[in-house]
Amino acid sequence: DIVMTQTPLSSPVTLGQPASISCRSSQSLVHSNGNTYLSWHQQRPGQPPRLLIYEISNRFSGVPDRFSGSGAGTEFTLKISRVEAEDVGIYYCTQGTQYPHTFGQGTKLEIK
Amino acid sequence: EVQLVESGGGLVQPGGSLRLSCAASGFTFSTAWMSWLRHLPGRGLMSVSQIDPHGIRRDYADSVKGRFTISRDNAKNTVYLQMNSLRVEDTAVYYCITDVWGPQYWGQGTLVTVSS
Fold it and tell me: If pLDDT is split at 50, 70 and 90, which confidence band does A68 have?
């Protein structure tokens, strides 16, 4: 199985400041069809996860543009340009290139 | 609006069985890959099983092979997870998702607790 490793595991951030989460995969996530199936998901307290970013950098429907994704191959990053109070929660990177889909350990974003 | 509503979770003894259901609406269910994921306490998220739109291709995580069976009824817009020979380590919140090369829409989850 592909192992997904996130850093940091905890990220205290000041409101209005940027935040960044890294995700590394144990092997390339480039599929034979040329696409890279790396997604980011947010889980707010008491809620199920929801999709934020798919295929590295595409924002899902309704996701604010302060969220952005980048990367290639085995190294990926989620950035929040200006953290808001509603962004508190746990963020997961996920690979869908190979089954079983695997997840990072999660990064807890909290406000300082 | 896409909705995925799981049901069937609960408390079961080791060795017992449960059948989870996921009722889907708001999209064309008969053309969608569907999956079950679980969130284990202290161990994170993991894939359990996926099924293709026609119910022909089914994949399983190694930890559940031979014990869990995924199925679907496209006439009822419902996907199922039959869980047999349950173990304490199967205790988790189980999520139904639409699977578009990874999770797209998530259900609210249903808690399965395996304990004597």
Answer: very high
| Residue ranges of chain B whose pLDDT lies below 50 | none
A51 contacts in chain B (CB < 8 Å): 103-106
Residue B8 token pair: 């069937």
Phi, psi of A25 (to 5 degrees): -105, 150
CB contact under 8 A, A54 and B107: no
Q: Give B95's contacts (C-beta < 8 A, 6+ positions apart).
A: A48, A49, B6, B36, B37, B38, B39, B106, B107, B109
In terms of phi and psi (left: phi > 0; alpha: psi -120 to 50; beta: otherwise), the region of A103 is beta
For residue B78, the one-letter residue type is T
Smallest CA-to-CA distance from B33 within B69, B2, B64, B57 is with: B57
Three-class DSSP labels, chain A: CCCEEEECCEEEECCCCCEEEEEEECCCCECCCCCECEEEEEECCCCCCEEEEECCCEECCCCCCCEEEEEECCEEEEEECCCCHHHCEEEEEEECCCCCCEECCCEEEEEC
Tokens matching residue B84: 């047999």
Chain B residues in contact with A94 by the CB 8 A cut-off are: 45, 102-103
The distance from CA B58 to its chain's CA centroid, rounded to whole angstroms, is: 12
Q: Judge whether A9 and A55 are in contact, CB under 8 Å.
A: no
Mean pLDDT of A68-82: 98
